């Protein structure tokens, strides 16, 4: 009896198996490569995302610092505006006495050293009261003509003699008190 081995059938099976395993190997290698590529892509995206997150976090910190700084600036601006408004209010209520005082010093007998200004009261309605003292009667009498000077009277809406004190004392101090209302002067540069 002769036994026969059919190698062709086994070879066909072997070739099918080899082809299957060859395809399986190729698919496994491709899947491995694809997995490695996916992992690199995921790591790259993760790193890029973390970098962007850090950049955004640092920007957020900068914006918060700027916001805090701007709040301080805003607070200072509000404080400045309040002080500016207060200053403007004070300027509106200010009596701006200096130009009017210069007028008094220029036109009154004080400029000739014959009288002294004892007191000056001035309000923001431009009402003025001033008192002059003289060392002798002649200076008092001569200075009354200064009050009738047209240039001097041009600065007043009204000017009246309030009182005259002619009582002689040891110092021979004569007093003259006037009350009036100044006209609005042009603003000095």
Characterize the structure shown.
- The chain has four helices and four strands, in the order ααββααββ.
- It has 189 residues and is of the alpha+beta class.
- The protein folds into two domains: 13-94; 98-182, 2-Layer Sandwich (Gyrase A, domain 2), CATH 3.30.1360.100.
- Strands 1-2-4-3 form a four-stranded antiparallel sheet.
- A hairpin with a 4-residue loop joins strand 1 (115-122) and strand 2 (127-134).
Short description:
By secondary structure, this protein is an alpha+beta fold.
Helix/strand layout:
Layout: H1 7-93, H2 98-107, E1 115-122, E2 127-134, H3 137-147, H4 150-153, E3 156-165, E4 174-182
Mean pLDDT: 83
Describe the main β-sheet briefly.
Answer: 4 strands, antiparallel
Low-pLDDT residue intervals, each spanning 5 or more residues? none
CATH class of the largest domain: Alpha Beta
Compute the number of structural domains. 2
**Beta fraction:** 15-25%
**Assembly category:** single chain
Alpha carbon gap, first and last residue = 142 Å
Key phrases:
189 residues, alpha+beta, Gyrase A, domain 2, 4-stranded antiparallel beta sheet, 19% strand, rod-shaped
């Amino acid at each position: 009896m002769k036994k026969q081995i059919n190698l062709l059938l086994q070879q066909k099976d072997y070739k099918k198996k080899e082809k299957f395993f060859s395809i399986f190997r190729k698919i496994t290698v491709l899947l491995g490569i694809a997995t490695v590529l996916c992992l690199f892509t995921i790591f790259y995206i993760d790193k890029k995302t973390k970098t962007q997150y850090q950049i955004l976090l640092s920007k957020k910190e900068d914006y918060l610092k700027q916001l805090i700084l701007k709040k301080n600036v805003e607070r200072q601006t509000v404080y400045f505006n309040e002080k500016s408004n207060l200053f403007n209010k004070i300027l509106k209520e200010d009596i701006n006495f200096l130009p009017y005082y210069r007028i008094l010093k220029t036109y009154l007998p004080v400029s000739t050293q014959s009288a002294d200004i004892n007191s000056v009261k001035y309000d923001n309605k431009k009402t003025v009261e001033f008192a002059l003292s003289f060392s002798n009667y002649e200076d008092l009498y001569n200075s009354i003509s200064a009050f009738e000077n047209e240039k001097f009277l041009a600065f007043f809406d009204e000017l009246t003699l309030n009182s005259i004190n002619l009582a002689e004392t040891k110092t021979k101090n004569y007093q003259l008190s006037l009350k009036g209302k100044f006209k609005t002067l042009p603003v000095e540069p």
